[in-house]
Amino acid sequence: MVNKLILGDNLEVMKTMESETVDLIYLDPPFFSNRDYEVIWGDEGEVRSFLDRWAGGIEHYIAWLKERVEQMHRILKPTGSIFLHCDWHANAEIKVDILNKLFGRNNFRNEIIWSYKTTLKVSTHHLGRDHDIIFVYAKNTEFKMHPDQNDYPPSENTLKRWGKYADANGFVSNKHFAGSASTIINTEDETKGFNINHGVPRDVWEISHLAGNNPEKIGYPTQKPMELLERIIKMASNEGDIILDPFVGGGTTVAVADKLKRRWIGIDQSVAAVKVTDLRLRRQHDMFSQPYELKLRKYDYNMLRNQDAFEFETWIVQQFGGIPNTKQRSDLGLDGKASDGAPIQVKRADNVSRDVIDKFFAAVQRSDKTLFEKNKAAGKPVGYIIAFSFGKGAVAEAARLKNKEGIIIDLKKVNDIVDYGTGPKVSITSKELEDYKYLLEASAESDAGIEFYSWDFDHKPEEGFKADVVIDRDGKQVKQFEPGEHHIAVEAVDKEGLEGTGDLKFKI
Ligand SMILES: C[S@@+](CC[C@H](N)C(=O)[O-])C[C@H]1O[C@@H](n2cnc3c(N)ncnc32)[C@H](O)[C@@H]1O
Fold first, then answer.
1. Alpha carbon distance 72, 67 (integer Å)
2. pLDDT tens digits for range 97-143
3. Ligand 1 in contact with 82 (CB < 6 A)?
4. Residue 28 Cβ contacting ligand 1 at under 6 Å
């Protein structure tokens, strides 16, 4: 399986997934809370989803979520588990009306408390609400779970009580706690005793929210710390396992899964979320990263045109419902077969000319004469040519063959098979404000409208685009530079998720 990042309503996407194929699901759905807090991206996809959930009260929200968790339960492997992230707004209903019903009370494993110590406003009505809840359920008793896969910090009590007995390596010998009422589970080495530096895995996790200057921070609300996901992924999966995040947001789960060599699927209904995740994965890309497929509503014309020719041929034949020719070079230059066996030729080009038709026609007759005659007699296409567009000569020749000889060569345009568009055209201008301090402005031409810009201030074309600033709604940055040569790149992402790049080299 190739890793996938998919734009769409997770309900629809999950319905197309096979049963029992996923090892671990983490979901961080939008909470049942007030609007301002909840809308993160503000794009069309998210607002639609928001309206979906808010058409009614809590019952409606629970029904909305339950339908989705039903799919999650179906696609989990028998050894799989689910981690559902929620908070006080709806945790009671989620547990009783969704998880206990679908997974069964017996398969409840934990209620993890993520305690994040935020500075809270004082309320006269309630205490500071300072934690989220992550429910853990297994699909059944054969679940995969290794709670000790992480380094847990020791609790304060452990340190206070046992610290004074610990040797330089943190070991407290057995004689000190023999007979003690505390049950000590952490015994890596029976003879050495337990190590106070390694905490016992507990269900209360102290992990702070990402601080403003944390390099992990991308710049959108609700971003979860990687440490949280690291713990979950390590404890409930192995390398190579498949992890699904159906509400992927800015991509924390898939970014961590990728680092930990798990395979992954991320889904989000918001174009902005999917593209932020895409840029985040590209930013962390190194030689160990795995390739992934990005599924938007539309394909990018430039990407299709510049893709490896063989990959493109294989892919478009499959999209057409045919069977690609797996041999890189066939003697007749045919790239695949339609479902009835009729030959397909792919030209990754525009304005395909008449001689392509002539050659194809000859090849079709030579490849399978019987099939050719049969299709001709039945008035069905004897073959298909797929291209971005066809020139006048080609169109006229296909018409002539059909009208004069009763032979149909079907000319299929790529956009009859898949939808594609062209990303924005972008340029950068710079203006020195004071010494070495510049105002950089991106301007983009786009029919769809721009969703956001991303900046790479130290662009190295051979490494690809590595965003320093991932989300910039206005396309304006003020930046201090050192003297020397600079190469800056900007990517503009439009409302369809298609992107365009511009760059600027300058010397100070
Ligand atoms: C709380 S955020 C997830 C944040 C994420 N855990 C992170 O660390 O970045 C919830 C996400 O769910 C998405 N979403 C809401 N309804 C959806 C639906 N029906 N299908 C797919 N995604 C949806 C929103 O667009 C939003 O990005």
1. 9
2. 999 999 999 999 999 999 987 766 777 888 888 899 999 999 998 87
3. no
4. yes
